[in-house]
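User: Once you have settled down, look closely at the record that follows, taking as long as you need, and be ready to discuss the fold:
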Amino acid sequence: MITAAAPPIAIGERAEQPLDRLLRTVSASRLNTFHQCRLKFYFRYVKRILKPPSPALHVGKVLHAVLQEWNKARWRKEPFSAEKAKELFDVLWLAEQQNSGPPRFDQGNETAEHATGWKLLQTYFTQTPIADGERPEAVEVHVEANLANYGLPTLIGIIDLVRAGRRVVDFKTSARTPGQAEHQHELQLSCYGVLYRDATGTKEAGLELHHLIKTKTPKIVITELDPISPSQEARLFRSIDSYVMGLQRQDFVPSPGLHCTSCEYFAECRAWTGEVSLDAIL
């Protein structure tokens, strides 16, 4: 079990700087953000500029939390009825807003998003490839892999689900059917493969992406993948190495593209003058 929190600072030691923390450990989400846009990474992880969640992120977090409880119930061999799922969904919908702040819903759109989220869950429970009697091997586990032998930071992460038979599962929500899912999510899946092997001492039997698609008629897309290959592991380590070198150089520059249209840091990016500040925000 791990925690991403920094260790206590002894009296007389200097306050830990943001880059110290970010260079000590690395996660799939940090890697993805860094390689998508380094300036976005700077705003989010170095300056820690908090933004209200998008509706899509809010729905995704609530669905993820309900699925986590469903998997825990199966692990405990406890019943989990549709009524319980709906009650939990409604409670978590409000709880997530209190934890992360009110999402950026368009006026009057929250009701529609709430209905869509519940329909997605209903669709998943109906179409899931997971059999009723299948007990998970692990649910929402915090894991880490010490990569010091490769000259890299400790890799940390949370694995959504390990199905019976050593199959690592990650849940996704999306507005459209995924294309090239293996390529788009390779970095994250490679992280999971490395983390699983380090934690268990065994090789995963495979990986699965369970996409909950928010189309007019909700649908589920299951992508089954082989265990990560040596070349995928090498690509991951090279990506982490690039992350380390970029942070050491303070290489925080924007990467303009289509993703900018939905970036929560667009205003900060347009106002950016080319300078960075590494003052700790505690």
